[in-house]
Design the sequence.
C-alpha cells in the first residue's frame, strides 16, 4: 500500500503544522479580509456572531447547529484547509465514513489527494476502521486525523 | 450643468499647477502632468457617464437625481461622491497617484475593480504610478483559486418573514473538485433581532446595514439544509475566468462597506446582482428590478440573460429523512425512530436477520433523523453524541449500500414555476346576479395555484386587490384588498410534527344586518395541524381568531373566534382542489355567526396560465348566499 503510505505522510505533515494552533480560537470573523489578513478583526466579525447562534466548540461532534469559525490561518496552505474541513464537519464526515460514501468523504479524499482510482479502497478502509478512527465521544478533529493516519499506515 | 462646472474648473486647475509648482513631497512634476492628462481625457470621453462606472459605483437614477445605493461614506473618495459621478472619478484617479502609506490601504488596492477598469480605458502607464498592483487581492485570488460561479437558491422557509421568499447567494467554485469547498458570498443585514415588530419595521425602513461576507459553502449548507429544512437549488453560471475575476474584484471593494438594507428592494437578492453586473459589463441586471425584488425573480432575470448552465438539486436533511422513510415499510420506520430515540440499541438491531438493504436503510434513517433533531435543538448534546456514535458504529459494520445512493428525484425547478405577479378576470353569479371581477396580485403564490416549483400547502399573498362589477346594479366597487394572506399547511407524521398556521389581514366587503354592504378591515390569525391522508389529500384544521373593524359595524368592531377544516389535493399535475368549511362566531361588538363552505378547483393550462372554478356559500344571520365564479388567471 505504497500510495497509502504517501497519504499517511501527507496527514503527518498536516499534524506537524497544526499542533495546538486551533485551540482556544474564539474569533468569528467572516470578512473577506480574514482569509488573507493575519489576525485582523473586521467589522464583519459581528456579522457572524449575529447570523450564527453561538459557538459549541466545533472541533468535536455536535456541530450541526450551523456554527462556524471563519478562516483565520495566517499562512493559508492546503493542509490547513484539510484541518479546518475536518474540524468544521465532524458529524457529517463521520456519517459518510460509516456509510463508506458521501460528499464529505469524497471531499476528504480530495483534500488528501487520493487518486480517483484508489478512492473505493480508501473509503472501504476507513469504513472498516470506523471505531478506531472515531474512538470516543470527546474525540477532536486532530485525533481523528491522527487516527486516520494510523489506519493508513497500518493498512 | 455639472460638466460645465468641471470644464471651467479644469483650466483653472491647470493654470494653478503651472503658476505654483507642486511641493516636492509626493510625486514629481512629471506625474502631475500625466495625471492632468488622464483627467482631461477621462472628462473628454465622459468616462464618468460610462455604464460600467455607474455599475461599480452603484449609481442609480432616481427622483432626486443620480445617487449611489451605497450608504457607507468610506466607499467614496470625494465628499460628494455619492451623488457626483465626476467628482468621484476625479478623486479616484487622483488617489491612484498618491504615495502609498500602506500598500493595502492605497486606492489601487481598496478600489481594485475601479483601478482595473480605469487602467484599461485610459491605458494608464503603470510605471508612472507609486502602486500599480494590489498584492493582497492577488493573494486572495491565489488562495481562493476561483474557477466558476454558481447561483445558490435556498428555497422558501415559512417560519420567518425574511426567508419566506427564499434567498440567493453565490458560490465560488475552487480548483478542488468538491462543491463543499466552494466559497459562499452572501449579502445580508446585521440584525440583533430575528423576529418581531422591530425586526419587520427596521427591515422595511432600511434601518439595518447590509454587508457582503464570504465563508465556506459547507457552513451555509449547515445553516440552510441541516438546520432550516430548506432544499437548495444550485444554478451554475457561465462566467469565464475574466468575469469571475471582475466579480471578485468588485466584491473585494465592497468588503466592510455597508448599504442600507431594505427588505423589499435593496435586499439580499438585489445587491448580489451588482456583483454579476460587475462581472459582465452590459448585463445591467440591477436596472431591471421594479419596486420590489423577489429572489426567484432575480433568478429568472439571470436565466433570461442566458447565464445559467445547469440546475442541481440539493435536498435538505428533512427531505432526505422523508425519502429514506418512504423506502421502508412501516415497522422499519418505527424501529428507526426507536433507535434515534435511544430506545433500541443499534447494535442489537443490526444483529437481527433482516434483509441487509433494509437494515442499512433503517440505520441510515435513524442516523439522519437523530442529526436532524439535534440541529433543531430537540435533544441535548450530551445525549446526542454517544447515541450518534453508536448508530454510526453499527452502520460501519454493514458495509456499502448495494443500490445507488439515495438519489432523490428532483422536484420541478422553482424558476420554471408560475411567475410572481398574477392578474385574474372572473365571471360569476351571486344569487342570480351576475358579476365580473378583475383581480391583481403582485406576489406571490396562492394555495390553489399550481404548486409546481413551489412548496405545496403554502401560500404567500401580498396585496391581492379585487374589483367587482355588479351587472344589474351597475356598480363598480372594490370587493376586497388582501394585504397579507399567508398560510402554511405542513403535514405531521411520525418524524415531523410541524404546526400549521395562517395569518390574514385584509379589507373585505361584508353585507351587514341592515342588508347593505361595507368594506371592513379584518385581521385573522390561526394555527392548527395537518395530516396527509393517503390518496385523499392533505387534511387540515385550524383554530383562529377573527377581528373586524369598521364604522358601519355596531360599536365599530366585531371580535370572535372559530375554526376551519379543509382538504387540499393535487389530483393530477394540472388539476388541484381545495375544499373547506369555516365557522366563526363573533361574540363581541357586532355579533354574528359566519359559516363559510367553499370548493375551489384550479386547472393548469400552461406554467403561466390557469382557470379556476369556485363555489362558495356563506351563511350569515341565518341567510345563505351562494356565489360561483370562473376565473382566468395569467402570471407575469
Sequence:
Amino acid at each position: 500500500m505504497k500510495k497509502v503510505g504517501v497519504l499517511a505522510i501527507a496527514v503527518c505533515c498536516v499534524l506537524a503544522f497544526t499542533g495546538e494552533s486551533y485551540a482556544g480560537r474564539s474569533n468569528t470573523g467572516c470578512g473577506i479580509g480574514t482569509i488573507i489578513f493575519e489576525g485582523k478583526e473586521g467589522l464583519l466579525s459581528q456579522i457572524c456572531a449575529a447570523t450564527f447562534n453561538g459557538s459549541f466548540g466545533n472541533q468535536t461532534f455536535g456541530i450541526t447547529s450551523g456554527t462556524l469559525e471563519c478562516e483565520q490561518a495566517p499562512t493559508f496552505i492546503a493542509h490547513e484547509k484539510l484541518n479546518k474541513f475536518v474540524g468544521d464537519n465532524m458529524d457529517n464526515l463521520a456519517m459518510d465514513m460509516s456509510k463508506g460514501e458521501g460528499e464529505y468523504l469524497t471531499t476528504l479524499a480530495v483534500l488528501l489527494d487520493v487518486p480517483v482510482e484508489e478512492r473505493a479502497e480508501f473509503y472501504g478502509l476507513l469504513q472498516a476502521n470506523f471505531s478506531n478512527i472515531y474512538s470516543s465521544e470527546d474525540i477532536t478533529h486532530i485525533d481523528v486525523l491522527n487516527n486516520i493516519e494510523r489506519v493508513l499506515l497500518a493498512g | 450643468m455639472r460638466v460645465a462646472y468641471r470644464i471651467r474648473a479644469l483650466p483653472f486647475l491647470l493654470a494653478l499647477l503651472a503658476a505654483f509648482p507642486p511641493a516636492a513631497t509626493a510625486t514629481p512634476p512629471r506625474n502631475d502632468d500625466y495625471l492632468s492628462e488622464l483627467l482631461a481625457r477621462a472628462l473628454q470621453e465622459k468616462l464618468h457617464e460610462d455604464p460600467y462606472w455607474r455599475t461599480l459605483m452603484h449609481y442609480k437614477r432616481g427622483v432626486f437625481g443620480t445617487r449611489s445605493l451605497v450608504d457607507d461614506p468610506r466607499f467614496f473618495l470625494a465628499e460628494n461622491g455619492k451623488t457626483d459621478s465626476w467628482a468621484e472619478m476625479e478623486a479616484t484617479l487622483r488617489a491612484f497617484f498618491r504615495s502609498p502609506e500602506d500598500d493595502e490601504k492605497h486606492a489601487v488596492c481598496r478600489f481594485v475593480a475601479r483601478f482595473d477598469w480605469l487602467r484599461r480605458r485610459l491605458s494608464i502607464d503603470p510605471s508612472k504610478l507609486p502602486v500599480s498592483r494590489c498584492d493582497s487581492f492577488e493573494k486572495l485570488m491565489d488562495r481562493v483559486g476561483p474557477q466558476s460561479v454558481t447561483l445558490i437558491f435556498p428555497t422558501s422557509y415559512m417560519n420567518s418573514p425574511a426567508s419566506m421568499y427564499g434567498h440567493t447567494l453565490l458560490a465560488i467554485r475552487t480548483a478542488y473538485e468538491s462543491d463543499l469547498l466552494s466559497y459562499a458570498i452572501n449579502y445580508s443585514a446585521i440584525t440583533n433581532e430575528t423576529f418581531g415588530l422591530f425586526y419587520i419595521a427596521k427591515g422595511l425602513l432600511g434601518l439595518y446595514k447590509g454587508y457582503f461576507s464570504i465563508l465556506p459553502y459547507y457552513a451555509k449548507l449547515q445553516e440552510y439544509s441541516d438546520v432550516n429544512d430548506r432544499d437548495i437549488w444550485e444554478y451554475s453560471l457561465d462566467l469565464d475566468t475574466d468575469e469571475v475575476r471582475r466579480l471578485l474584484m468588485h466584491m473585494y471593494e465592497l468588503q466592510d462597506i455597508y448599504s442600507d438594507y431594505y427588505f423589499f428592494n435593496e435586499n439580499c437578492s438585489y445587491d448580489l446582482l451588482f456583483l454579476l453586473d460587475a462581472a459582465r459589463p452590459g448585463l445591467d441586471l440591477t436596472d431591471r428590478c421594479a419596486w420590489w425584488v423577489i429572489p426567484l425573480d432575480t433568478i429568472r432575470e439571470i436565466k433570461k440573460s442566458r447565464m445559467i448552465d445547469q440546475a442541481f438539486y440539493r435536498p435538505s436533511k428533512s427531505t432526505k429523512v422523508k425519502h429514506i422513510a418512504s423506502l421502508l415499510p412501516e415497522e422499519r420506520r418505527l424501529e428507526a425512530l426507536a433507535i434515534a430515540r435511544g430506545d433500541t440499541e443499534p447494535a442489537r438491531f443490526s444483529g437481527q436477520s433482516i434483509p441487509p438493504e433494509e437494515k442499512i436503510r433503517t440505520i441510515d434513517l435513524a442516523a439522519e433523523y437523530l442529526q436532524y433533531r439535534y440541529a433543531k435543538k430537540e435533544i441535548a448534546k450530551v445525549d446526542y453524541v454517544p447515541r450518534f456514535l453508536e448508530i454510526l458504529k453499527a452502520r460501519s459494520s454493514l458495509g456499502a449500500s448495494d443500490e445507488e445512493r439515495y438519489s432523490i428525484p428532483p422536484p420541478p425547478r422553482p424558476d420554471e414555476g408560475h411567475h410572481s405577479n398574477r392578474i385574474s378576470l372572473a365571471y360569476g353569479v351571486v344569487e342570480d346576479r351576475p358579476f365580473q371581477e378583475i383581480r391583481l396580485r403582485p406576489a406571490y403564490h396562492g394555495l390553489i395555484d399550481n404548486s409546481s416549483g413551489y412548496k405545496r400547502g403554502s401560500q404567500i399573498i401580498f396585496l391581492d386587490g379585487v374589483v367587482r362589477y355588479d351587472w344589474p346594479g351597475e356598480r363598480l366597487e372594490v370587493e376586497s384588498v388582501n394585504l397579507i394572506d399567508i398560510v402554511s399547511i405542513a403535514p405531521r407524521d411520525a418524524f415531523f410534527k410541524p404546526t400549521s398556521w395562517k395569518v390574514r389581514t385584509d379589507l373585505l366587503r361584508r353585507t351587514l344586518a341592515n342588508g347593505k354592504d361595507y368594506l371592513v378591515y379584518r385581521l385573522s390569525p390561526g394555527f392548527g395541524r395537518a395530516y396527509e391522508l393517503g390518496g385523499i389529500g392533505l387534511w387540515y384544521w385550524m383554530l383562529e381568531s377573527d377581528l373586524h373593524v369598521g364604522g358601519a359595524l355596531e360599536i365599530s368592531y366585531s371580535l370572535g373566534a372559530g375554526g376551519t377544516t379543509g382538504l387540499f389535493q393535487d389530483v393530477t399535475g394540472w388539476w388541484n382542489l381545495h375544499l373547506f368549511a369555516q365557522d366563526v362566531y363573533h361574540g363581541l361588538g357586532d355579533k354574528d355567526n359566519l359559516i363559510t363552505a367553499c370548493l375551489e378547483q384550479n386547472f393548469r393550462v400552461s406554467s403561466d396560465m390557469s382557470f379556476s372554478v369556485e363555489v362558495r356559500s356563506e351563511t350569515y344571520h341565518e341567510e345563505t348566499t351562494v356565489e360561483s365564479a370562473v376565473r382566468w388567471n395569467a402570471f407575469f
Chain B touches chain A through 53 residues (CB under 8 Å). The CA atoms of residues 189 and 210 of chain B lie 4 Å apart. The radius of gyration of chain B is 30 Å.
